[in-house]
Design brief:
Number of domains: 1
Oligomer: single chain
CATH topology: OB fold (Dihydrolipoamide Acetyltransferase, E2P)
Strand content: 35-45%
Helix content: under 10%
Largest sheet: 4 strands, antiparallel
Number of helices: 0
Order of helices and strands: EEEEEEEE
Strand order of the largest sheet: 1-3-6-5
Radius of gyration: 21 Å
CATH architecture: Beta Barrel
CATH superfamily: RNA polymerase II/Efflux pump adaptor protein, barrel-sandwich hybrid domain
Distance between the termini: 76 Å
Shape: elongated
CATH class: Mainly Beta
Structural class: mainly beta
């Protein structure tokens, strides 16, 4: 007879590290070409003038300047308009 109960297979025990998402440079800060401004999953913040988006939705600076955030209306596929933050470099 076993003196220890059967252990079984442990599930959901792996823990992945954080992805370090979020705003890296805030409004009013200086930025150089190619620097990361926002790391995000999906288009929570939209690119504006002086910025571009990479494949994983990271917003980069396309030129040297100062970061600026403002809200604007974006129309969804259903026709509903919602407020979204736009990132620009001027």
């Amino acid at each position: 007879m076993s003196h220890v109960k059967a252990g079984g297979a442990a599930k959901n025990v792996h823990d992945s590290p954080g992805q370090r998402l979020g705003v890296k440079l805030f409004g009013g800060q200086k930025v150089k070409t190619g620097q990361v401004i926002v790391r995000q999953v999906g288009m929570t913040k939209r690119p504006g003038r002086g910025t571009f988006v990479s494949r994983n939705f990271t917003i980069h600076a396309a030129q040297d300047g100062i970061v600026n955030f403002k809200t604007r209306k974006v129309r969804r596929f259903t026709g509903k308009s919602v407020a979204r933050t736009e990132v620009t470099v001027e």
